[in-house]
UniProtKB/TrEMBL annotation:
Species: Paenimyroides ceti
Protein name per Swiss-Prot or TrEMBL: Uncharacterized protein
Length: 161
């Protein structure tokens, strides 16, 4: 777990550096007992400004358990906060769900646990789950008038080989 944490810390640092942005302080937005797991920038509401999607993770110590391989793993769930920016790049929360995604340390049965990635392309938020040889799934969400379009949100596709 220590190696995994180091890897994600390094990945986050490299990503933040390559985007050439100062470190934004979202401590007033992230709820107590949660940490930022991932941060993605892009224009979600098509106003020409970068909005922000935060993937957050609970830090409940009771969810740190020993798995079937006798390893200590963090099974705290992850959540999402979507923030729209204004002309001064201050952010307003438009979507909050603190536990909608499973932990990255769930057991994958005979294979490996699902791998989740989040990206913003052409004004849409894509959440991708990779299940290895069992296929993949995705969620596409769109925003209309600064409201999450539920019809777009549930366009989930499960593809299997």
């Amino acid at each position: 777990m220590k190696k995994q944490f180091t890897f994600f810390s390094l990945l986050f640092t490299v990503t933040a550096f390559t985007q050439n942005r100062k470190a934004d302080d979202f401590s007033h937005i992230v709820p107590k007992g949660y940490v930022i797991f991932d941060k993605v920038y892009g224009d979600l509401n098509k106003d020409g400004r970068d909005d922000c999607v935060l993937i957050i993770k609970d830090t409940d110590k009771s969810k740190v358990v020993i798995n079937s391989y006798n390893q200590l793993v963090d099974r705290n769930r992850r959540g999402i906060i979507v923030l729209f920016s204004d002309p001064k790049y201050t952010y307003t929360s438009v979507v909050r769900n603190y536990s909608c995604f499973s932990s990255e340390n769930e057991e994958g049965g005979v294979y490996f646990p699902p791998d989740m990635s989040v990206e913003i392309q052409k004004g849409n938020l894509y959440i991708h789950y990779g299940y290895g040889r069992y296929g993949y799934g995705g969620i596409l969400s769109g925003f209309k008038n600064q409201i999450l379009s539920l019809s777009d949100m549930m366009k989930a596709i499960i593809m299997a080989p």
